[in-house]
Amino acid sequence: MPRTSDPGGRPSLTFESMGTVVSLRLADPAGDAGESVRRAAHAAARDTFRRWDERFSLYRADSELSRIARGDIRLTDASRELRDCYALALDWRDRTNGVFTPHRADGVLDLSGIVKALAIHEAGGVLAGLGLAGWSINGGGDILVGGRPTPGSDWMSGIVDPLHRGAVLAGVPQTGRMRAVATSGSAERGEHIWTALPGAPSPYRQVSVFAGDIVTADVIATAIVAGGEKTLDESTDRWSIEVLAVLRDGRLLATPGLRRPAS
Predict the structure, then answer these.
(1) Quick one: which of 159, 176, 231, 240 has the fewest CB in 10 Å?
(2) How far is CA 254 from CA 23, 69, 158, 213, in A?
(3) How far apart are CA 246 and CA 67, in angstroms?
(4) CA 83 to CA 80: how far, in whole Å?
(5) Are 19 and 162 in contact (CB under 8 A)?
(6) What 8-state DSSP symbol labels residue 23?
(7) What is the pTM of this model?
């Protein structure tokens, strides 16, 4: 799971949503105006996540998606927002050759593989709209950044070692086109990803994907864990991404853009 940091050392603003902790780091103006912007950013991001969670959480009996799972309403009668989200998930299913899917093995429609990324994406738009010079939003290890934390510096994401949760495998600057990073794997929640490898666990204990947008990063990280080496090769050929993967035996696999030049 990635952690974000900035050279300014500002304390993060946090709240709980979607069963995880969401944290914001802001490069905001100083003084009273800056504190007002920080409060507005915190409230707006929290409200964004609340709305997504209320509609899509299968852990909430009153959510629209839970009502569909119980058969209280049909998918065709669902809100436009839910149907659009489902259509996006189906599009990603087709683009990943069925490896990423919103359909659980028990037949329940589960959009959790894409909803958190969409909430992060929307919250990022809200933060950008506040005119902040730089911001970072971290939703349970999936990170989207904008601007810079301080002039001349970059946001840094530390990729946590899945075998030793207190250690960091690598620090990667989020700069240029790589504004988003998402991590999938079994270290935090066990074997929760539906694998496309019958009778076998994924060859990857953890996969972190860096991309230009958080939805692509999140979906492809999940797809690589589920689909294995074939999906990793197809994904790096098709999308402009960088990947840091931890194999079952603890070895690291990194795409060229993440490798340091030999000293």
Answers:
(1) 176
(2) 27, 39, 14, 19
(3) 38
(4) 5
(5) no
(6) E
(7) 0.89
User: What's at 197, amino acid-wise?
Assistant: L
Q: Which one, of 4, 3, 2, lies nearest residue 153 by Cα?
A: 4
What separation in angstroms does the CA of 224 have from each of 134, 159, 167, 204, 233? 30, 17, 23, 8, 9
The 10s digit of each residue's pLDDT in 4-49 is 554 445 568 999 999 999 999 998 555 556 788 889 999 999 999 9
The string of DSSP letters for 70-110 reads HTSS-GGGS-HHHHHHHHHHHHHHHHTTTSS-SB-TTS-B-
Q: Which residue in the block uniquely carries the two structure tokens 């929290």?
A: 46
> Which residue type does 161 have?
D
148-195 pLDDT, tens digit per residue, is 998 889 999 999 899 887 889 888 889 888 999 999 985 554 444 445
Give the Cα separation of 180 and 212 in Å (integer).
6
Check: CB of residue 197 under 8 Å from CB of residue 225: no
Which residues, listed in sequence order, are joined to residue 246 by a DSSP beta bridge? Answer: 206, 252
Dihedral sign from CA coordinates of 239, 217, 190, 164: positive
Please give the structure tokens belonging to residue 20. 């995880």
How confident is the model at residue 17, as a pLDDT? 96
